[in-house]
Amino acid sequence: MQLAKRILILIAGTLLLTCDKEPEAAVHPDLAPYLRLFEDEATQRGLSISFVQTPISAVFVSETDRIELGWCSIEPNRSGTVNINVVFWPGMPALQKERLVFHELGHCVLNRSHLETVGTDGHCLSIMNSAQRCSDNYNAQTREKYLDELFLR
């Protein structure tokens, strides 16, 4: 009888410990460095962003019928998911991969919408552009300016 009681207590304790936990965020290993870099860049600009405290998912999806490189999905009462279309990812240079992930994190984490402001040179002034009204100019020389706008706007 004592053994049965102990087993029931053990089972009940295990259920209590696991029931209220939210599922952990899924982060593909190839996307994890971009999330860490996003946190670091935010910190450098005085913002506190922690994907440990506020988990977010970052996954690859294969969507051959979509032209989007990536998108943010947010479900009610859940953290967001950065979806990266794996169809385009392999051919992208590293800096463009960073730009794409940061753009989607801008939607999912910073609640930013698209910003279509165009500079006098015809380039987009924000990483949050939709690439439909201006040409992107995210490169090693302009990176800091774009990240300042992303985090400090």
Terminal Cα separation, in Å?
65 Å
Let me know the number of strands: 3
Strand content: 5-15%
**Over all CA atoms, what is the radius of gyration?**
20 Å
| Biggest pleated sheet | 3 strands, mixed
Percent range of helical residues: 25-40%
The number of distinct helices, counting runs of at least 4 residues, comes to 4
| Global morphology | globular
Question: How would you characterize the overall build of this protein?
Answer:
The chain is α+β, with helices and mostly antiparallel strands. Helices cover about 35% and strands about 10% of the residues. It has 4 helices and 3 strands. It has a 3-stranded mixed beta sheet with strand order 1-3-2, covered by helices on one side. It is globular.
Question: What is the fold's blueprint, element by element?
Answer:
Blueprint: H1 2-19, H2 32-44, E1 57-61, E2 70-74, E3 80-85, H3 94-108, H4 143-152
Parallel strand pairs: 1-3
Antiparallel strand pairs: 2-3
